[in-house]
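FAQ: What does a ligand-bound record look like?

Like this one, built around S-adenosyl-L-homocysteine:
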Amino acid sequence: MNKADSELIIGLLTQDGFHRTDDEEQADVILVNTCAIRENAEQRVLGRMSELNRHKHVNPELVLGLCGCVSQHLGEKILDKAPYIDLVVGPDAYRDLPETLRSLDQKHEPALNLSWDRVEHYLDINPVREPGVNGWVTIMRGCDKMCAFCIVPYVRGRERSTPHKEIIRQVQRLAHEGYREVTLLGQTVNKYEDGDVDFASLVKQVAEVSGIERVRFTSPHPSHFPDHLIATMADHPEICAHTHLPLQSGSSTTLERMRRDYTAEEFLSVVKRLRDRIPNIALTTDVITGFCGETDEEFQATYDMMSEVKFDAAFMFKYSPRSGTAAYKRLEDNVPEHVKGERLTAIIDLQKDISMLNNEAYIGRTVNVLVEGQSKKDPEKLYGKTDTFKTTVFPDHPGISAHTIVSVDVTHVSPFTLFGEVR
Ligand code: SAH
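The answer part, i.e. the structure of the complex:
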């Protein structure tokens, strides 16, 4: 989501006559886009800003700006920690960026723009996207779920869906520019709603755009998988056989404290309905260890659920209290840090074994890989992804062009990668 927002900011500034440079020393303005989801992300931003501040010794005119969720979360307080920051802009206020940057010429005091805008979709701005196979398309902004641990609604505001006609226009443009894959983005992406166009209907229309061979979406919420959405996914080969399904916890009591609106049983039933209809579907997830009051039994339920579901991959985190959230205000962060850490290590180890087993099932199979480019580790190899989101590495070969789909026979695997030979 932040990558998509950065592409939007670049689009907005480019449209206004600014020129982009990747050379920090050449820049008159450096903007850092940020994530506030965990304390650790916030700390790293501060480190990065102080590192960038050294350019001001050479170029005192340099404008150093902070964008995104950390801006919205910390607001003015960020200036106590990093007084050299010139500009603090939240996710709803990018439209004013060019004007704010110009007004900085006269004033030398920091500018803050953290205003909310419930209807802002940035519809008239064409993001400047990274070249490649995949284009991000934001289909909704904000979130209304109010999970007890999560800061998103407080930094990204209320949920709103972008009009579907605009989304289709963007996807057509991407296809025209040569992108083969689109990823639809939203915090609760499958809750999309624009009049009578729901997510199933939107994703079908996107899949039907000529030139788009793969459609992905992230991140969906387990509570919004009606049968007709699963049927649409099954019936359209362009819609990739992969779904990210954030579990957070495998214990219904923890889920209740987290204010997730499903039980462990309901989660398992979504998994079953997806697998019944799309047997080869890959499932990935997010899990939090050590949420307020998490007992050994509750953690064990998460461990057991992960063993049972056998996700293909998982993003796993220690609970990090975020000021402003319901958990921060009303629950005690009472699981000791070392226990959070032990639980995290236990599920990381478990998941590694499961990912390996799942990948081993691919050995001897032929997979279709959308070629992204040269492997970073070995320039003689290419890499890309299967529709099930498995990174696949294989030897380069003069007949293969980037951004096309090739068939690869899988010969060996690691927990994170498939390796093979082109057919
Ligand atoms: N919209 C997604 C959440 C996106 S944030 C959803 O519905 O689940 C990405 C992940 O960060 C979350 O799924 C969660 O696992 C993790 N996360 C969010 N807040 C956190 C916190 N306070 N501490 C630790 N992990 C957190």
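Follow-up question: can I read anything off the structure? Yes, for example: The chain has a mean pLDDT of 96.
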